[in-house]
TrEMBL record, chain A:
GO terms assigned for molecular function: metal ion binding
Domain of life: Bacteria
Keyword Phosphoprotein listed: no
InterPro entries linked to this entry: Heavy-metal-associated_CS, HMA_dom, HMA_dom_sf, MerP/CopZ
UniProt entry tagged with the keyword Cell wall biogenesis/degradation: no
Residue ranges of domain HMA in the record: 2-68
SUPFAM superfamilies, sorted: HMA, heavy metal-associated domain
Keywords attached to this entry: Copper, Metal-binding
Protein name, entry field: Copper chaperone CopZ
Gene3D superfamilies (alphabetical): 3.30.70.100
From TrEMBL, chain B:
Broad class of the protein's primary localization: membrane
UniProt feature coiled coil, ranges: none
UniProt xrefs under InterPro entries: ATPase_P-typ_cyto_dom_N, ATPase_P-typ_TM_dom_sf, ATPase_P-typ_transduc_dom_A_sf, ATPase_P-type_domA, Cation_Transport_ATPase_IB, HAD-like_sf, HAD_sf, P-typ_ATPase_IB
Membrane topology annotation: Multi-pass membrane protein
A single Gene Ontology CC term: plasma membrane
Keywords annotated in UniProt: ATP-binding, Cadmium, Cell membrane, Ion transport, Membrane, Metal-binding, Nucleotide-binding, Translocase, Transmembrane, Transmembrane helix, Transport
Protein name per Swiss-Prot or TrEMBL: Cd(2+)-exporting ATPase
Enzyme Commission number(s) from the entry: 7.2.2.21
Gene3D superfamilies: Calcium-transporting ATPase, cytoplasmic domain N (3.40.1110.10), Calcium-transporting ATPase, cytoplasmic transduction domain A (2.70.150.10), HAD superfamily/HAD-like (3.40.50.1000)
One matching Pfam family: Hydrolase
């Protein structure tokens, strides 16, 4: 199990944060996703055997938001 | 952002054209076309995003707005469709602008992080990225430059503005041997610094990380709101369907969808918290999260651990009274015995010895420390014992009446007295003074002003010292001669009496009571990670100035959250009643919705400007 912080481009509404969170949570390999509107950041726990950071970025991109940096 | 503004403007112009043509009695076709165009411009992105998320089986507010707008067009309410989408786009534009400002409070802080460092490599001075400096490497900081690492000054002398860490902009003088922090500004001298921590490991890096995490910590109110909206939205959708089947009014159902996302409610708490934590961070006050902000807003009692808080904690040796022994010899033995002790009294003794004797000490053998009592160790084959009367009573060593009397006199003066014995014979009394801070009295008064009912002191010092400090500072009470576990008990007793207690300590030897209190506040924590980790609120500066500010800010934030929540809940019910009572329709529903979100944000933004009166 790995943890990663995804810094997203500025989320424009609380609902957008919900949206990204739900999409990430439903992504295969993600065990936990926590997205914060106020900091525009996603804290994600994932299984590295099933998905890598690029896969996570792609999942976020589906919502229309880009990942600016990861940590 | 700019794209959003463009969309809002074009859509607004189209709406204006529509109304103008209506005013001039042109063909209604122009009005209708302009309105539909406005709705498409403002709603296009919304619909796309709604579609994308729907594909992933997520119902978003975008979807509800899209359905409402499309529905309005179908039933011929072109103006309503335009108004709903325009207001939604305009509202979210304003929303992200203002929230951006709250976020900037934190971003500004991050901008204070140093980027470059000057180091000597291969005999040449080089500029490298601050996080690439190696531990132990020497960095050069010229006047006006930012200190890029945490470390110790090894050469030079200067004044340093530590506002980035402590929130205090009065420069602090630094010279060889002093600790300096990354992110602080070297004012006027040349400094060479031996690096101890770089990048994320520095105190500044810790602050940033903490502030970031703090904003994500969900306050209890926030969790409640989120739970509510989780049921509210599907509930409203269901209600929209039911009301259509009962009343047959499409317009009513669509309006329900518009108000289906309680935006103001969801954002009411987190936005206040971001603003409150942001304000604190700028002032050297780290609040660990929304929960603590809410909790400390309810504090009505402040308990101080004396040493390092009400007093400077830099105790100094005041007098050495010896019994048939040379003063220097007593000091040498005492300092050697205390070599491994980090107790503030031990530090005072060692400091004095370093100054007077100019010798180096080695680790003693058989060193034993008994918390709250004292220490024993072997020096040159002699058993040295240093401690308070409790230690001596326990060891069965008699304290002669004349010694006792001298001890009492010193203690009456508010000094701490330790007894030194060699092979169970008392050879000296060392008195150590740790005066209350100069501003301590005003701080106590200010705490009362921000709504604290009782200010008390919990101290390990003896009753006489405690009494003298308590009466000097006009405290409401004190408990003396407490061991760390007694402090915990004292805090619990106050809690049982019904007080919400904030415990203020230096965060090092009072951890248990900080944890027990409703809110644990550590002060003077710059450079001590342990204190930052245990405390709920951390004052970076080593002074009390920010304590009333921290509590005042928490109280203001708590009020702010309550105002926002009450307002948002009222809006939710007012809108629902208005819609069901057929008084609010699509456009007005959206208008009220967006306005309420903005009002909540603007109210929270007031916290960014909070300052103590």
């Amino acid at each position: 199990m790995k943890k990663i912080k995804l810094y997203l481009e500025e989320l424009s509404c609380p609902d957008c944060a919900n949206k990204v969170e739900k999409v990430l949570s439903k992504t295969e390999g993600v065990t936990e996703a926590d997205v914060h509107y106020t900091t525009s950041k996603a804290n994600v726990k994932y299984d590295p055997a099933k998905i890598n950071p690029d896969g996570l970025k792609k999942a976020v991109a589906k919502t229309g938001y880009q990942v600016e940096k990861t940590k | 952002m700019k794209k959003k503004l463009k969309i809002v403007m074009i859509s607004g112009i189209l709406i204006a054209i529509g109304w103008l043509s209506n005013l001039l009695n042109f063909d209604p076709l122009i009005f209708n076309t302009a309105m539909v165009a406005a709705a498409i411009v403002a709603g296009y992105q919304v619909a796309i995003s709604a579609y994308n998320t729907l594909k992933m089986k997520v119902i978003s507010i975008n979807l509800l707005v899209t359905i409402a707008a499309v529905g309005a067009v179908i039933i011929g309410e072109y103006w309503e469709a335009a108004a709903v989408t325009f207001l939604f786009a305009f509202g979210s534009y304003l929303e992200s602008r203002t929230v951006g400002k709250a976020r900037d409070a934190i971003r500004d802080l991050m901008d204070l992080a140093p980027n470059l460092a000057a180091v000597i490599r291969d005999g040449e001075e080089k500029e490298i990225a601050a996080e690439e400096v190696e531990i132990e490497e020497v960095v050069i900081v010229r006047p006006g430059e930012k200190i890029p690492v945490d470390g110790t000054v090894i050469k030079g002398k200067s004044e340093v503005n530590q506002a980035a860490i402590t929130g205090e902009s009065i420069p602090v003088s630094k010279e060889t041997g002093d600790e300096v922090f990354s992110g602080t500004i070297n004012k006027n001298g040349y400094l060479e610094i031996k690096t101890e921590r770089v990048g994320d490991d520095t105190t500044f890096g810790k602050i940033i990380e903490l502030v970031e995490e703090a904003q994500e910590e969900k306050a209890p109110t926030q969790k409640l709101m989120e739970r509510f909206s989780k049921y509210y939205t599907p509930g409203i959708i269901l209600l929209a369907l039911i009301s259509y089947f009962i009343s047959g009014s499409v317009r009513l159902s669509l309006t329900l969808l518009v108000i289906g996302c309680p935006g103001a409610l969801v954002i009411s708490t987190p936005i206040s918290i971001v603003a409150g934590i942001g304000n604190g961070a700028k002032n050297g006050i780290l609040i660990k999260g929304g929960e603590y902000l809410e909790k400390s807003g309810e504090i009505d009692m402040v308990a101080f651990d004396k040493t390092g808080t009400l007093s400077k904690g830099e105790a100094e040796v005041d007098q050495i009274i010896t019994y048939n022994k040379d003063k220097a010899e007593v000091l040498r033995l005492a300092a050697a015995a205390e070599f491994n002790s980090e107790h503030h009294l031990a530090r005072a003794i060692k400091k004095k010895a370093e100054k007077m004797l100019e010798t180096e000490f080695n680790s003693p053998i058989n060193f034993e420390s008994q918390t709250g009592k004292g220490i024993t160790a072997q020096i040159d084959g002699k058993e040295i014992m240093i401690g308070n009367s409790r230690l001596f009573n326990e060891q069965g060593i008699e304290i002669k009446p004349e010694i006792e009397e001298q001890k009492n006199i010193l203690e009456e003066q508010g000094k701490t007295v330790v007894i030194v014995a060699e092979n169970k014979q008392i050879i000296a009394l060392i008195s150590i003074a740790d005066r209350p801070r100069e501003n301590a009295y005003q701080i106590v008064e200010k705490l009362k002003q921000v709504g604290i009912k009782k200010v008390v002191m919990l101290t390990g010092d003896n009753k006489k010292i405690a009494e003298s400090v308590a009466s000097e500072l006009k405290l409401d009470g004190y408990k003396a001669e407490l061991l760390p576990e007694d402090k915990v008990k004292a805090v619990e007793e106050y809690q049982e009496e019904g007080y919400k207690v904030a415990m203020v300590g230096d965060g090092i030897n009072d951890t248990p009571s900080l944890v027990t209190a409703d809110i644990g506040i550590a002060m003077g924590a710059a450079g001590t990670d342990a204190a930052i980790d245990t405390a709920d609120i951390t004052l970076m500066a080593d002074n009390l100035n920010k304590l009333p500010y921290a509590i005042g800010l928490s109280k203001a934030a708590n009020r702010n959250i309550k105002q926002n929540v009450v307002f948002a809940v009222l809006i939710v019910f007012a809108l629902l009643a208005g819609v069901l009572g057929q008084k609010v329709f699509l456009a007005s529903g959206m208008l009220v919705h967006e306005l309420s979100v903005l009002i909540v944000i603007f109210n929270a933004m007031r916290l960014l400007r909070y300052d103590i009166a």
